[in-house]
Amino acid sequence: MAFDLPKAIEMLSEAVKSGFRFAETAKNRQSETEIIKEKKKLKKATDIAEKIILLTYKYLDTFSENDQENFIDLINDFKKYN
Question: Which candidate, 63, 32, 2, places its Cα nearest to that of 75?
């Protein structure tokens, strides 16, 4: 059986392409995993912020008028982005 150089080059080329495809797929999956982790952390932070808001609402009448207005503005901003 004779050595077929063009066939060997073609096979090597396919192996290299396959390696690059694998690396790209692994990179994409890692990025997706990081995004999922960040979304979970953001959800936890948002849940905590909502609890803080509810607790703070109980004492809103003790705030100065200016602080009450600022608090309400912040609540509205929070609702807009949540």
Answer: 63
Q: Is 71 exposed, middle or buried (0-12, 13-18, 19+ CB in 10 A)?
A: middle
Domain boundaries, the chain: 19-81
* Model confidence pTM above 0.90: no
Each residue's pLDDT tens digit in the chain (82 positions)? 566 667 767 777 777 777 778 777 877 777 788 888 899 999 999 999 999 999 998 998 999 999 999 999 999 998 888 7
Residue type, 62: T
Amino acid at site 27: K
Q: How far apart are CA 36 and CA 24, in angstroms?
A: 18
Q: Which two tokens stand for residue 72?
A: 């309400």
